[in-house]
Amino acid sequence: MILKSIRLKNFRKFKDSFIEFPDGVTGVIGLNGVGKSTLFEAIAWTLYGPVAARTSTEQIKREGAAPSDPCRVELDFIFDDDAYHVVREISGKNLSASGSATVNGKQVVNGAEVLSKFIQKKLGMDWKSFYTSIFAKQKELNTLSSMNPSERRQLILRMLGINAIDEIISQIRSDLKEKKNLIETLSGMLVDEQGNNRILRFQQEIERQQQRLKERSFRIEEQQRHHQKIQQELLKIKKDSETKKISYEKNLQTAALLEEKKSKSEKKQRLEHDIKTIETTLQERKTALKKLQENLLQTRNLEKEIQEFEKQQEKNTDSLQVLLRKKEQNLTITTRLQDEITQLSAKKHSIEKIGPKAKCPTCERVLGDQQNKLIKTYTEDIAKKHQETQRLMEEQKKLQDESDRFSRERQALQKKNMFLRNRVVEREKTQSSLRHTTGEMERETNQLEQKKKDLKLLGDIDFDEKYYQQIRSQVNDCYRLYQQSLTTLDGIKEKQQEITIALKEQEGEKKLIDQQIKTTERNIEEQQQVQKKLEKERTETQHCSMLSEVMESFRTYLISQIRPMLSAHASELFNELTDGKYSQIELDENYDLLVYDHGVAYTIERFSGGEEDLANLCIRLAISEIITERAGSVFQFVILDEIFGSQDQIRKQNIIKTLNGFSSKFKQIFLITHVDDIKHFTEHTMMISEDDAGISWIKIE
Ligand SMILES: Nc1ncnc2c1ncn2[C@@H]1O[C@H](COP(=O)(O)OP(=O)(O)O)[C@@H](O)[C@H]1O
Ligand SMILES: [Mg+2]
pLDDT for 227-243, tens place per residue? Predict the structure, then answer.
């Protein structure tokens, strides 16, 4: 892999920088924090994406860049003779990632994640291996030289990715542990609390359940036979009952017919009887009617009699009144006469008394002779009046007799009146009876006619009471027999139902046992599965143990291989860098560095500081080489980031000088340093500097 160019847009401190990577040794020079390491971090990020960045994605885009500005890196390189153009970008508020790769001008990948995968596949290594192989840091060199052997060994193994095997081994071990636990659990599942084999127990249970099922089936068959028998019996009884029902109904029908006849016959009898009765009644009524009519005939002059009576009565009343009036008049006259007599007597007495000399009380003349004349006149008048009174009294007496006679006649008339009234009432009664009788007779005649008509309609009825009674008793007998058959039928039905229910229960229980068997079978199946799984787990455990052993030995083998390989590669580099002065360096079993001088191995302390630096650099570069080779590819560039630590000027110069002669192995060597004077010793210089705005720029010198 040879780097061709890189364009950085808003990547960390770089706003917009483009440089072409020269071949040979290039010093990458700039003050601390200007973005030297960033430049190479950008290469890894472009190829592998966010995993290869130092920080989270949000911190990658340049601070101060506008939100709409994307952060973008374009990298051009040659790999396996193909020209790659890889672009990675984060843009927008959400920093959405995109990426693409073009090989020889043809786009092969589009999308951030697919790009990472594509690169990993092409280069044959993940980002960590990539980093380790191209990027050597001073820290690592320090570690290689100053750490104790065990730490050194750890670092080397980690750099070479042997720790990946360790991880695998520990993964296998944890798998094994898990499997062992699982096996224990599964084994536990196969036995019950008493430690008995569960499958065996379930099998015994199935046997028991099957025995129960057999018994149940036998009983069901028995009951089915019984059920069949009852069914047959039921059919027979049903038929019998049906026959009895028909016979009963037939008799009932006959009885009904006879009953109809009977009622007709009874009706006929009633009609005949009624007709007779009505006829008798009618006859009686005729006689009564005749009598009534005769009675009525006797009262035909009653009106006239009443008229005459009334006339008589009127006459009587009138006469009586005339008499009474006369009597009263007589009485008045008599009273008046008596008064007059009294007055006259008084006058006569007074005249007699006064004598003839006295003056007339009326004419005031002296009476004289007149007195006697007057007394005589008075006496005659009084006598006359007495005579009149006498006559009146006699007449009065006659009138009294007359009125008595009329009163008696009146009493007789009153009696007659009563008698006549009674007769009127009697006649009214007779008339009413007559009307009633005539009405009744009319009604009864109609009735009679109707009844006769009804009777005629009934016609001749032949009803045999004896036969009817016989049929009635037959109906009762048939009914009783029919009812008996029904009771028997009910009994049988009940029995049938009982058996049906019992049968259903048995079948339900059978089903239950069936289900239980199925459950037990399922349990067995489950247990068998557990057993199978257990067996599988046991086999897998065996395999895992084997794998673990293999991996362990593989690891041991790798480690044993690594040292000679590392030594060989480092020796080659060291030989070249020392111009053949030292042909061999070696890591011993303790990972201590040995340098051979004239065939004799010496620990590194024997040599100069510069030689020690070189030896360690060779070890580090050998590690890079091994990783690259293991991936089946060749990286023709290497980045050495601040590898100069405490070295003095001469030592630095020596290293750079030797690196210059290293072009056979590494076409591009980038020496990152903040030491400015390095530029005098390198072929090319890449100056990185920061402007006032904090933006970094790169310049090739
Ligand atoms: N997103 C960023 N925007 C601007 N500067 C950044 C951003 N991320 C890191 N930096 C700066 O980049 C510098 C680190 O660059 P680095 O390449 O490590 O320096 P050096 O030249 O010492 O290798 C630091 O000063 C750090 O503040
Ligand atoms: Mg740095």
Answer: 999 999 999 999 999 99
